[in-house]
Automatic annotation (TrEMBL):
The keyword ATP-binding applies. Coiled coil: none annotated. SUPFAM superfamilies: P-loop containing nucleoside triphosphate hydrolases. Gene3D superfamilies: P-loop containing nucleotide triphosphate hydrolases (3.40.50.300). The keyword Hydrolase applies. Pfam families: Helicase_C. Keywords: ATP-binding, Helicase, Hydrolase, Nucleotide-binding. Residues 2-42 form the Helicase C-terminal domain. GO terms for molecular function: ATP binding; helicase activity; hydrolase activity. This is Helicase C-terminal domain-containing protein. It comes from the Eukaryota.
């Protein structure tokens, strides 16, 4: 919750938020860009 507050603040302390697809479905944030990527199933 603390990191989410930093992300939402206007002071620019945390300009990037990285989360899983599960968290992304439940977050409603005002953002300019969304970058989606998937990790490979096998390395």
């Amino acid at each position: 919750v603390e990191n989410l507050k930093k992300f939402k603040s206007d002071d620019g302390d945390c300009p990037t938020l990285v989360c899983t697809d599960l968290a992304a479905r439940g977050l409603d944030l005002d953002v300019d860009h969304v970058i989606m990527f998937d990790f490979p199933l096998n390395s």
